[in-house]
């Protein structure tokens, strides 16, 4: 069956350091992969999208890599700030889907302490 | 930016009643909207794909007669939870697929609706 796995344990990190989150998937051929941020009691907010033929994407302090051989994406928050504390979700859309359906991982909580 | 609203943000109802949740794309047209459900500490689970002017497509295991979806216009989709029971208590989130532009592959999410069934 298709699975999207993210670290279930919260990532505690000191302000200024780089947070690195992992998203692994199995039995999946994604057209593209997205990362979202979700705050408690709120809907997800889009951060970055990376396509299957792209290796890396950057946006300000965020960086995403996508390795379709390893079936893994890494999400980096550099120079982390307490305001970055949230749950980060990865989501995939399969190649076969024409509607842009997303399947989400369970998310990894990041806690940035001053 | 692309803004999606949901109404109500919270609802508490008695078991057996029906609850309607609205999802609106405020500044863009969305031919496709999605409805998700999220239980505490769990992933968002896609319930159904709502297409303007046609019947919704439900994911496996989601009862279409219990979760009625109507996508009456390019900016509005509604989810009605019929004969709600306590196990339907959850966080319901909609998203809208932008029709065109640089963001065609992004989904814009609403703020969610917390449903509590007593």
Structure commentary:
The complex is a heterodimer of chains A (about 110) and B (about 120). Chain A is mainly beta. Chain A contains no helices and 11 strands. Chain A has strands at about 5, 10-15, 20-25, 30-40, 45-50, 55-60, 60-65, 70-75, 85-95, 105, 110-114. In chain A, strands 2, 4, 5, 9, 10 and 11 form a 6-stranded mixed β-sheet that branches. Chain A has a 5-stranded antiparallel β-sheet with strand order 1-3-8-7-6, with no helix packed on it. In chain A, a hairpin with a 6-residue loop joins strand 4 and strand 5. The relative contact order of chain A is 0.33. The model of chain A has no long low-confidence stretch (mean pLDDT about 90). The N and C termini of chain B lie far apart (about 35 Å). With about 120 residues, chain B is an all-beta fold. Chain B is globular. In chain B, strands 2, 4, 5, 6, 9, 10 and 11 form a 7-stranded mixed β-sheet that branches. Chain B has a 4-stranded antiparallel β-sheet with strand order 1-3-8-7, with no helix packed on it. Chain B has no helices and 11 strands. In chain B, strand 4 (about 30-40) and strand 5 (about 45-50) form a beta hairpin. Chain B has strands spanning about 5, 10-15, 20-25, 30-40, 45-50, 55-60, 65-75, 75-80, 90-95, 105-110, 115. The interface of A and B includes residues 32, 36, 44, 45 and 101 of A.
